[in-house]
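Friendly challenge for the regulars: who can give me the structure tokens for this chain first? No prize, just bragging rights.
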Amino acid sequence: MISQEQFREEKALLLKQLDLPIKGAYLAGGAIVSTLTNKGIKDFDVYFKNKEAFLDALQYAYDNSFWCVALTSRAITFKRNNGKLYQFMFFDWFETAHQIFEKFDFTACMAAIDLDSSELSAHPHFVSDLCKRKLRFNPGTE
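First reply, four minutes later:
Bragging rights claimed.
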């Protein structure tokens, strides 16, 4: 299990870079991996706990002049005037971070930060697989 204290500085840096004051959601996947591997963040993938939180985030995005650059059956992607990209996932709602992980292919991507509590959750193999650059397939993925 990941100690919250071990990654306190990285979480704080990541949430500052996210710069998205929304609730009822998780930041998951690539942005966390990029932060922990000292790579540039390409985009921020946001997964919502319920439809209301998603609609609130949409309202925030439009109220703050985010530009919609893509729409699929799974996500809406916004670009901010500072160049940051945000993917708001709406193909499902997720009460827990582990429900998000069930959708991921590889354990080295299975980490999420709850935007309500700032709690970091991860698959038991996340850190070791990330450090080893090991692609361990999640056989339970959809």
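The longest strand covers residues 44-48. Residues 23 and 116 are 5 Å apart (CA to CA). Your move, everyone else.
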